[in-house]
Design goal:
The N terminus is likely disordered. The protein has six helices and 20 strands. With 400 residues, it is of the alpha+beta class.
């Protein structure tokens, strides 16, 4: 019995000694021998950026849609064709040429009538001059509208100064031609009585208006390229009257390209025109920096994310250099927009900051001891935080 008690006492002492050894080892590991992953607070530069996928498209795109009534008579282009400004792309069925011929015969009859009434006056020349005046007046209205449009495009950086000057010159030239023809007309009708001249002008101007309406309708029966570019879409065939709203043809200007990217609404509100941007595509060996945001579209639209979630996004446009011509329209790129940038600021690794009770903290090493420090953060990116208050250059912070 005594022997058993002795054995129990020895076993108990051994257990205490082992536990004490384990406890001592634990203390040693967590005091003298513990190592920390640290990094010094340093000064540097930091940028906050937003990154999204984008697509390279033309900066000028014209899409032509069917009205559901007109039947295609002739298609003069194919997808991929390069066309020049003014080229006829598609012609629709029309009887307008016959109506124009009818008006021209009425003008000729008017000429014969007044030649009989007023001897010595060349009404054939008067008709020609008067009709040209009315036609130029109608053209002037269109050219002035185009000039106003060119002014807006130039201010937005879409067209060059030379293109803007050409539109301005076209207006001045038309006004000068009308002035010259008005002087010529006044000389031609100087021997015609005032009542007869007014009667003639009322009739010829009425016919001129009818003729202009028909010519305008005729222009609506053909699709012409209003700038030089490439045909990127074509839907329809000769003899078909496409359904209303169908995209019949799309024309893009290859010489003027831009990147279009959709950003989340809460990101888009922080983006401003002129902010620095870059685009890249590793597979295409494409990397362009020093670009700028040229336009932020005013309305958010619903887009389906890669995860199948509907998100409200805003389209942002970034113009590409005029000499950029080595990427196909429709190519996908990664777009990065710099929202803010600061130099010579205190930076700490992103993993050194943690949150506690809605405040941000870091742990620093001071004389071999750990000390928790509250900090105020500034800019942040995937790698670093800017420290505004709480740390000094050279402080040692724990990571994780």
């Amino acid at each position: 019995m005594k022997t058993n008690k002795k054995k129990s006492l020895i076993i108990g002492l051994i257990t205490v000694i082992v536990m004490a050894g384990v406890f001592y080892g634990y203390l040693s590991m967590n005091t003298k021998d513990e190592t920390y992953s640290t990094e010094a607070v340093k000064k540097g530069s930091i940028s906050k950026t937003f990154i999204e996928n984008g697509e390279i498209l033309s900066n000028r795109i014209n899409a032509y849609y069917s009205d559901g009534i007109k039947r295609i008579n002739k298609i003069n282009v194919q997808v991929g064709d390069l066309v020049n400004e003014g080229d006829v792309l598609i012609e629709y069925d029309s009887t307008i040429d016959l109506e124009i011929e009818k008006i021209q015969k009425e003008i000729k009859a008017l000429e014969y009538t007044y030649n009989e009434v007023v001897k010595g006056v060349d009404f054939e020349t008067i008709n020609s001059v008067k009709l040209e005046i009315e036609s130029l007046k109608a053209n002037l209205y269109v050219v002035e509208e185009e000039f106003e449009n060119s002014k807006n495009l130039y201010q937005e950086g879409v067209i060059t100064k030379s293109a803007y000057n050409a539109a301005e010159l076209a207006v001045a030239q038309l006004k000068n031609q009308i002035s010259i023809l008005n002087n010529q007309y006044s000389l031609l009708v100087k021997d015609v009585s005032n009542n007869l001249r007014l009667q003639y002008e009322a009739q010829i101007e009425s016919l001129a208006i009818s003729l202009e309406i028909l010519e305008k309708n005729k222009r609506n029966d053909i699709l012409t390229a209003n700038f030089s570019g490439i045909i990127t879409e074509l839907n329809g065939f000769e003899g078909q009257a496409p359904m209303a709203g169908t995209l019949v043809l799309e024309l893009q200007d290859k010489a003027s390209k831009a990147v279009y990217a959709d950003f989340l609404v809460d990101e888009a509100v922080m983006i401003q025109e002129g902010m620095e941007a870059s685009v890249r595509n590793i597979d295409l060996d494409l990397a362009l920096s020093g670009l700028a945001v040229s336009k932020i579209y005013p309305k958010a639209v619903t887009r389906l994310s890669e995860l199948g979630v509907n998100q409200k996004k805003v389209t942002v446009k970034i113009l590409l250099p005029e000499d950029f011509d080595n990427v196909t329209l429709g190519a996908n790129v990664e777009v990065e927009i710099e929202i803010a940038h600061r130099d010579n600021v205190l930076l700490v690794p992103e993993e050194s900051v943690y949150e506690k009770e809605n405040q941000q903290y870091v742990t620093i090493l001071v004389n071999g001891k750990l000390e928790e420090r509250e900090v105020v953060l500034g800019l942040e990116n995937d790698d670093f935080y800017e420290i505004i208050i709480g740390l000094s250059d050279g402080d040692i912070v724990l990571i994780d």
